[in-house]
Amino acid sequence: MSFKTYGLAPSLLNALTNLGYSNAYPIQHEVIPAILQGRDVLGIAQTGSGKTAGYVLPILTNLQRRMVSKNRHVEVLVLVPTRELAVQVRDVFQLFSVGLPDRVRSLAVFGGVAINPQMIALQGVNVLVATPGRLIELVESNAVSLGSLQTLVLDEADKMMNVGFKDEMDRILQWLPARRQNLLFSATISDDLSALNRVLLHDPVVAKTEPEPETIELITQTGYFVPEEKKGPLLRYLLKTNDYAQVLIFTSSVYKADNVADKLRKNGIYAEAIHGKKSQGARTESMIKFKAGNLRVLVATDLISRGIDVKDLPCVINYELPRSPKDYIHRIGRTGRAETPGEAISFVTPEDEHHFWIIQKKMGKRVEVLNFDELNLK
After folding, report:
1. What is the structure's pLDDT at 338?
2. Three-state SS for 109?
3. Would you say the pTM of this structure is higher than 0.85?
């Protein structure tokens, strides 16, 4: 459906036209009218589905209708689990804010960098995109007030609940006005998120879009039965014998991400790791290089993978399997996009065999699994 049918601000329609967008994606079609009407929303959609613009566009339109801001009293709060996603969401707000009749200021705040510049930058901000820990620091320093909040957005709400943010979320929710619009967006749904829905949402519009079947069909999936101690040699063999322009490797821990990248470099394959323990500067630099095609191999944890969106990424390797079948689909979905085929490779240890069978069952697709012993690594 055309964006012109929703009642968005004219300047936003001009921006969409200039960017080459005319019709809304399915998730946008579901959520834009609800947000414009002030309804609570639960949106379940994969990364790359357009969900960020799906809430940014109506939020900006609503702000144009009701802007009576007080200094350091933000009207919109977007909570995200990672610094990278905070910057990404802020960039979308800034992209569409250009040309609005009433100026809308947006700011991303996160830990790992000095807090004082962020405190200064909060002057006159309407939309605040924040990680929970840094937001708590800013509120407790009286640098920002949430008392006038009109709209709360939880982006990647499933990850925020799964990685230990629950206590911080409880503190933040106590500071918010009872009457507000709540928008929850997630790539997956979990029991924890379902419990959060019942607390936060009032008569929500539920919008759920499934990945297009052809998205997974474009991905050639292969597994390798391999002992834990042979994963390193197998990874190096695959990287050296295949002409992948870029490879995204997933691990399940910060330690393993660093370890894998370090061993690759020692064996003549330049790689960088990106995870929550890296400094903001290092993470930003790695992301820029990988997205620009100047870094061939990036090793990432699941949390940091949110926000990694590389056009025509040819290969994803699961060095370690994720715990959730949904996370498996999210991982491999980084390749095989926009009608471009991709490849996904998974390392399966003897301990992983049953879990990998469950992943295949949930996915509804069998994966060919080869024996490591059949390869001539020399």
Report:
1. 63
2. strand
3. no
